[in-house]
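Why this split exists: single-chain examples teach little about how molecules sit against one another. For that reason, every record in the complexes split bundles all components of an assembly together and asks for one structure covering all of them. Below is a record exactly as it appears in the raw files.
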Amino acid sequence: MPKLRLSFISAFNERVDPLMKGGVQPEGIEIVPTYSPPPETFWRQLKFQEFEVGEMSMSSYLIARERGFDMIALPVFPSRRLFHTELSYNTDSGIQKPEDLDGKRLAVGEYQQTAALWQRGILEHDFGVSQYKIHWYMERTEELSHGSVTGFTPPQGISFQRIPTEKSMASMLVGNELDAAAINSPWQNTPNVIGRSHRIRGADGDWSKVKRLFPDRMAEGKRFFQKWGFLPVNHAYTIRGDIYKKYPWVAFNLYTAFVKAKADFNAKLVDSIPSGLFFGKEYLTMTQEIFGDDPYPYGVKANRKMLETLIDFSNEQGLITKKPKVEELFAESTLGL
Amino acid sequence: MPKLALSFISNFNERVEPLMNGTIKAEGFEIIPTYSHPSETFWRQLKFQEFEVAEMSMSSYLIARARGVDMIALPVFPSRRFFHAEQSYHVDSGIKEPSDIVGKRIGVGEYQQTAALWARGVLEHDFGVSQYKVHWYMERTDELSHGGATGFSPPAGISFHRIPPEKSMATMLVSNEIDVAPIGGHLSRAVNVIDRSTHIRGSEGDWSKVKPLFPDEIGEAKRFVAKHGFVPVNHTYIIRGDVHRDNPGLALKLYDAFVAAKAQAAETILERIPAALVFSQEYFAMTRDILGDDPFPYGIKANKAMLETIAGYSYEQGLTPRKMNIEELFADELLGT
């Protein structure tokens, strides 16, 4: 039986992998997978629209849609983190708690990336640190940034600098040329052509001076979740507009396959915890006590609060000029799911 | 020069995997891997000696060596757990704490298996529960048991029963026909041909009546390690006697390859922790706080206390006719490790 072959780009994600590996197959579709680190994926997708289905930055998606890019998202959110708890500071900065970031130099890979959007939003709403009172340093160059593709200019009133090309977030944080960044050791992320911290790692610096802004990340995660009711999402998946128009059925078929892939992974979750951790089951229970049985809900309904918050933050931060309706962002057939 | 090809049987183990999948290669030999459930591996290896290198039950190894089976172990111990803390009880049994199991009926997959040896030894030495004051119920049949291959008969003075072939530890525990067994739920174990609890799962029973004997497994692990100084080992790896004699130097090269494979697993453990745990770094740090930087030490010196304890338990429990010497159990060239 013939199937529609669709190119598909994504980083490895345990909840998506059954789909990329072929253990879960969408009805009517054969996936041709490309594994790729997100910074490269989004740049390629935004600039060249190479792939028919792809992982996409939520923040860049909101911006790109406002600017008329032709793609449509599925309400699947397999990638979530507590981005603001990933910030670290150099002890020479005088910072001791999140509120102390006021007036300090904070680095981001890219100003408009979703992680930075959540960090700014949560610092502002939960810790009273205005984005206008921070000096922002961005690592990615104009040529290789997502923003260059979607037409980024620093929002008005923001103190915005670029990190010199011979330096990186890592080297500047450990040298206290910056006060805070989401790095707490020589960078170990997957090498990719977009960022620099994995190449200019600052490995010769004194990383004992770099401390976590939230020393107890679990307590902060609990506080955040109790207040907001969700885990922040950074990526969704999009279908290229031409494909969606020609084969509208692809959206629903893919959505149900994403749901099945997640269920498949969840069934194997306990067994996939490295035995070297010893107390994997106990740790999983601790995580579930904080975030419930499904910290990665899919669908528009279960994510409305998260999506509205993301849209609010994006608008407040001057990344989008007007707030889209949640319904405009996702394929029509998935809106009731 | 053609490399020596060695048949190698093992369960998936993250600390052995680089050796099985060829990421770690040792000079002069290549491995032909067979992945196999331990229950099947040990039975096949003890009964038919099919493989040149094999994962091996520590308890069955002690017994087999006492009976002159021709194989030699390497001091590598990549598989460790707190076996006594994996026991569960039926609430109708009246058990409330570990010392209450005196006089009760305990299920074991196999009487001589290493998990059961540790559970008996720790219950006796740390909780005062004499193995002679408990009624033992064994699940595996004579034909498919490791004991069937090593000549097992129940030690004198032990109250020993077999679980009827139409039942299993799981069905008997959930219906309180036995009081205790190392099974937490009806789906908690992977299917294999040896263990009936993986086929006759008792799924229709009321598993809410089955509770862990150590509700705080992490707390119990802390207590155990503070007292004993090691994490119990269940499996090691052996070279078949003829292969060992025909290939001087093989034991050392294999040992080095096991050490390198373990180092690689340690380097990648953080990234292998499922993102779904959310707090992988925090959990990893908790485990290290309890068990130290290397919970899986290899070599004779670092395992002396563990090996003396297991050889002592085996003898006390009547499984070996004398306490085996550490020096006779491992390849000569590795006694200095």
